Amino acid sequence: MFPIVLLLLAFAESLAAQPIKVWERGQGNHFQKFVKPVNQKSIDIPNLISKNLFDVQYQKKSDYQGYYLSHLLKSYDSNKDTALLHISNGMRVPIPMALIQDHSFDPFIAVKMIGPKGNPQPFPKLMRKDSRFNDPRPLVFTTNKLVISHDRVPLKDHRAGLNPFRFTTSLEAIEMINYKSWLKQFSVNSSPETDIGLKIFASRCQYCHGVRSVGATFGWDFVEPLAIYQKRSPENLLLHVKFQKMDAVPRGLLMPPQFDFSPHESKALWQWLKNSALKAQQAYQ
Ligand code: HEC
């Protein structure tokens, strides 16, 4: 038993030391699968520093060893304005480079958690709270863990009350983008109402959902294989976003409820979902 544990620890250690891939999103073809990465580099992780930090996921302070995102990105020259974090569970979180560079929002990427005796220990799985059930789909951290200390994250377009870093697992890669061009891929541009829908998508959904394989894949794709606007009416969508299902924990559902979601927003978002399904998607430029 003991040698196996050691072996696993050594394996986890070698994974944690893996370089992180960084590239710029290529222009042209709109399907993410076929967009060629530009200037792709494997960046060695920087020297580790020790930090005692509060973490919004574990809701406690712990000792970590890791590095800041700004340290990693120092070795990558790019004039793009946003770092799109690729998270191992399929989430995509855009962070403005200006915030990273002036350290006003510079996530700490822990590669080790240090136990009470000073020895490294694996990152505990994150269970959702419901004492009646075991969580069938806990969040699992592998190579590293983003440690964010408060819920007021200054992300662009972000809604207070929804902190995407409560759901992130390990940082896998970073794609450098121009944020305006990125959002344009999701724009349906037909009426002001649909533009409102796009803003709502950007502020409440894009961290976890994508459209036709562009963007996040943690939750369902909004258009393929099933167009969500056909499955849910605006009223129905409102209930789905605003409230968590009673059986969310036993079924392993991960989508967080957003209590401040209004009927007005649901209508606008639904219109945008419909147009996204009916119109061709725009290319990243
Ligand atoms: C933190 C991640 C996250 C955010 C933010 C999020 N979702 Fe989800 N969503 C999920 C996941 C994961 C699923 C798959 C089912 C599950 O595990 O809950 C899902 C499933 C869905 C489904 C399909 C399930 C069904 O019963 O129809 C719809 C529709 C949906 N989300 C809409 C939205 C909309 C609209 C927003 C923004 C207002 C949003 N989601 C924001 C994670 C998220």
Short description:
The protein has 285 residues and is of the alpha+beta class. 27% of the residues lie in helices and 21% in strands.
Task: Describe what this molecule looks like in 3D.
This protein is an alpha+beta fold and 285 residues long. The protein has one domain. Helix content is 27%, strand content 21%. The strands form 3 sheets. A 5-stranded mixed sheet has the order 2-1-10-5-6. Strands 3, 4, 7, 8 and 9 form a 5-stranded antiparallel sheet that branches. Strand 3 and strand 4 (60-68) form a beta hairpin. The structure holds heme C. Residues 167, 204-205, 207-209, 218-220, 228, 231-232, 240-241, 253-256, 269 line the site of heme C. Keywords: Heme, Iron, Metal-binding. This is Cytochrome c domain-containing protein. InterPro entries: Cyt_c-like_dom, Cyt_c-like_dom_sf.
